[in-house]
Amino acid sequence: MARYLSKVQATLDILRGWAIKRIPRIENVQVDTLARIAATLPIKEAVLLPVYLQVASSIATTPICNTNKTSVGWMHEIEMYLRTGELPEESKHAHKARVQAARFTLIGDNLYRRSFGGPYLR
Questions:
Q1: Is residue 93 situated within a structural domain?
Q2: What is the domain extent for residue 88?
Q3: Global pTM?
Q4: Contacting residues for 59 by C-beta, under 8 A, at least 6 apart
Q5: What pLDDT is attached to residue 95?
Q6: What is the pLDDT of residue 19?
Q7: 3-class DSSP state of 84
Q8: Which stretches of the chain score pLDDT less than 50?
Q9: Is there a domain that residue 61 lies in?
Q10: What is the 3-state secondary structure (H, E, C) of 22-73?
C-alpha cells in the first residue's frame, strides 16, 4: 500500500492543482438510486462473480544493478597461462596458476572447469 501512496503522491506533485471533495448522496442522485436498488434486490446464493487474480504488482519498479569491474578476476592468471603460457612473475602466484590451470580448460573464449567423469562446468 505504501508504494501506491508514494506513486499517487508523485503523480499529484506533477499536477498544478487538485482537490478531493466529498459529494453528499443528496447531490448525487444516480449513485443514491443505484445503491437503493442494489439494497432491495434479493441476494441469490449461486451468483458467480468473475475474480481477477493480479499476480504481479501494477507499479513497475526499475531494478538497478551497479556492476563496475575494478579489478582483474581470479580467472585472469589461469586464462593467460592457458592461452599464451605466460605465468606471473612472483613464484608463489606462478605455482598457484600452474596448479589451478590443470583443473581448467579453455574452449573458445570460455573457461571451463574439468569434472571427474562428467561434463565441463562453466
A1: yes
A2: 76-113
A3: 0.41
A4: 3, 4, 7
A5: 92
A6: 82
A7: helix
A8: none
A9: no
A10: CCCCCCCHHHHHHHHHHHHCCCCCCCCCCCCCCCCCCCCCCCCCCCCCCCCC
